[in-house]
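A quick aside before the break. I want you to see a complete sequence-to-structure record at least once, exactly as it would be stored in a machine-readable document. Don't worry about memorizing anything.
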Amino acid sequence: MNTLFNQLFDYNFYCNKNLIEKCKELKEVPEKAVSLFSHVLNAHHIWNMRLLGKEHKYDVWQIHPLETWEDIHYENQRTTFEIITNSDDFQKRVDYETTEGRVFANELKDILFHIINHSTHHRGQVLADFRTNDVEPGNLDYISYKR
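That is the input. The structure line, written in tokens, reads:
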């Protein structure tokens, strides 16, 4: 299971890094794209902290300036790889509290998959916003990444 999650988070890293680089090339990043990608970074951080039993430092919809995206992204990735590396039971139940204060429990593997799926979902929204703003989004397909 470690290998699969390492591969999926490598792909997630690749996509986020490409999106950050694309945004750095733009004169102005569309406002909606900034909000959505900040949310991707925030949610990944929040889930990492839940998995580690620590307090998160970002709010769900907190906006980050483009200049900070890369550092937040690298820290998220590093932390997730530590979680994966140190996990010997991906079916372990993890108790956590949502930002609304509700308590839930899910298996570690499902939370890790959620981080990937959530990021993919919102990156798709960012790319759609790029098209709306006449920005060519580039190819982030998994199969293209694997080629």
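Two observations worth writing down. The chain has one domain: 2-146. The domain at 2-146 is CATH 1.20.120.450 (Four Helix Bundle (Hemerythrin (Met), subunit A)). We'll return to this after the break.
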